[in-house]
Amino acid sequence: MNKQTTRYEIIINGIVQGVGFRPHIYRLASFYNLHGYVINTTKGVLIDIEGKSDSADSFLKQLQEGNIPPLSKIISLTYSRKEPYGYSSFKILESVKEEGDITLVSPDISICSDCLRELCNPSDRRYQYPFINCTNCGPRYSIIQQLPYDRKNTTMHDFVMCPDCSSEYTDPLDRRFHAQPDACFKCGPHVKLLDSSGKVLETKHAISAVKELLEAGAIVAIKGLGGFHLAVDASNNNAIERLREKKRREEKPLAVMVKDIEIAEQLCKLNETNRHFLLMPQRPIVLIEKKDDMPLSPAVAPHNKYLGIFLPYTPLHYLIMEGNYPALVMTSANISEEPICKDNDETLRRLDGIAEYYLMHNRKIYQRCDDSVISIVKELPLVIRRSRGYAPEPVMLPFRVPDVIATGAHLKNTVCLGKEDKAFVSQHIGDLETFENYKFFLETIRHLTDVFAASPEIIVHDMHPGYLSSQWAVEQSLPCMSVQHHEAHVAACMAEHHLFENVIGVSFDGTGYGRDSTIWGSEFFIGKPGLFLRAAHLDYAPMPGGEVAAYEPYRMAVAYLYKYFGSDWLQYPLELIEYIGSKKIRNIFSLIENRINCPQTCGCGRLFDAVSSLLGIRYFNKYEGQAPMELEMLLRHKDIECRDGPMSPRSKAQIVGADPCVRHQRHKALEDNDNSHYAFEIVDGACLVVSLKSLFADIINDIVQKKDKSIIALLFHNTIVEIIKNICVCLRTRYGINNAVLSGGCFQNKYLLSKTVDELESAGFMVYCHQQVPPNDGCISLGQVYTLACKLAGDGRDNPNSLSL
Ligand SMILES: [Zn+2]
Ligand SMILES: [Zn+2]
Ligand SMILES: [Zn+2]
Fold this sequence. Notes:
The longest helix is centred in the last third of the chain and has 27 residues, at 709-735. This protein folds into five domains: 5-92, Alpha-Beta Plaits (2-Layer Sandwich); 105-189, DHBP synthase; 191-371, DHBP synthase (Alpha-Beta Complex), CATH 3.90.870; 386-500 and 778-801, 2-Layer Sandwich (Nucleotidyltransferase, domain 5); 506-771, Nucleotidyltransferase, domain 5 (2-Layer Sandwich), CATH 3.30.420.40. A hairpin with a 2-residue loop joins strand 14 (373-377) and strand 15. The model is unreliable at 643-672 and 796-805 (pLDDT under 50). Helix 15 crosses helix 17, helix 15 packs across helix 18 and helix 18 (604-614) packs across helix 19. The strands form five sheets. It has a ten-stranded mixed sheet with strand order 6-13-7-8-12-9-11-10-14-15, with helices on both faces. Strands 25-26-22-21-20-27-28 form a seven-stranded mixed sheet, sandwiched between helices. It is α/β, with parallel strands linked by helices. The structure holds zinc ion (3 copies). One zinc ion binds at residues 111-112, 114-115, 133-134, 136-137.
């Protein structure tokens, strides 16, 4: 070998399998006339190249500068110089499986523009083929059974490639080179149409038949990428009502799929930001404000000013969206909160009596994965449900962890596998109330540990001993660690931002098991994961009937009013009294007096429930969180998607007196302007407590004076923001901490989040919010892993109790 020959061995880690990485390397090596090989290993992609020194250097530089396929992501790149070997060509070698290190798995990705073009081209051999894909698009996580990502390790192993597909697959210059799910009409999966009894209907063209059925108002179960959807014409009121009744989903908003961005424009108020999120290859459902004259049935999203809207993401969806309807309701195929159906037989069984037809196919789904849902606040995504398109991409951690499983919360459950410096948060699993969801929970733990070759050494779970996720954890023969629910919330947000020093953690949430056997949910913590000190919270109120109160929000209104005013308030002309009746209300009084199933709670979600029903907006929830959501919908604020929306003129925080910890705050002017709010009192002590008596007195006063409900709702929201700001300022004064971390289900409320961020920033805080995982209980498993990570990394960290007071 001559002197100018250079050989590099390069190891790349990240999302590098199933995304066209090796073919890209092949083409790049060919361009620079380099020889050697590339191979997928469980350690990552290994590239061995040699050739002229300047060419080898340029090749390396290209990779370092990010010349990589669109769906890939480099997390680490290491290289070393080697003695030249004398390769005579460049080859892509078969994958090798080794024990030990992990390779990342790409999430499922929407069809790319090249494939879409072929799908619509009558002279292409895959014209209208519903499973067209390439190295840049198609199913990934949902079909992978184990790593490395090769066809034989996916559910595509059932299909033998025809000579045409095979030649594409083996041609390094073809855009389907090593596209594992590559297929065509001749050799790949096919669709079939079945009636409600599961009988296959002989039809020349199943997709055309489905379009006609949908146009006629039928409910059709359609198998997609991570599971089945139930589809109906979104402009057909009758069909939607029928679907709601059968699915037992009375009022919860339904997502709609539209053919393209132009149709989306007709339905919703689009801007540059939400358009960007709609078009992302992850294709999430994006919550966007509806247009007033939207040509869809009002039954799609009643009492809601947002519409969950998404674009087609598989070729099959594109073909179905050609039908004569403005949009399709495409809701997860399940009953109520059960997991989404994925297997053909399972679907026929579980959707019996719901679906009127089935459009199935014979490509198996290995991992079920619901659609992801995001909302947008200040140009950033606010993830509501993290699933398809995102899972199982890891959240990178600043510390390494031993292999650990975190079992998450009870509702909106996700699990998380911690391994090395990565936290693999699972797709949304759902509420562990049903056996089907519990099975899905077990399946997901097994799949994550298998696919990432993990051997868990410890399990982290919620403190609540009654949660199935906690019970499963302690039944395993492994060491366990429990983490308080709201501390896990704050820890999850800190994990996203690699924070590990002391923070002020604000966890405004529904309910969670507290350290003192009461039910927490409006927590201010000081400290760091594993070492949090509870520094403040809202006042407690009884929760009459326990968990029932979450579904009957009027109970919380009665509980707060009874706590602060006894039965005096019954004299006022309130819709609540009229609707519920004073007899029923007095029954609740006696529940509270006799302490019958009335646990104490300070959950902020329950406070929102109380105010929503006090205003006569919602006395009984048809779905979890409905009362608070409808209270938010009353707000007549302007666009808060944009960073500099007109909603939030930045005003200086107003602190009453020199010491912000005053017992009685002045009641500001109750006008409809951005910063007015109701009164509240901060009761001083080692742990600050916010009394809400003045808040409720003010609200009753405004109701009696017949003030517009939307103004009362605004003033209430502003009060919560003002409370958060005042407490944070107070804690900063006490502890000298300026980082504020926001988490908890209440921060799904766009106004609350946006306004809190504005006010805290105006007061000089560094504010951290969730971006990668939801602020709701979907983040708990990440927080659990991060708490363990911080504890293990934290030798010598100071105790928050020793902070200067
Ligand atoms: Zn493609
Ligand atoms: Zn083929
Ligand atoms: Zn929570």
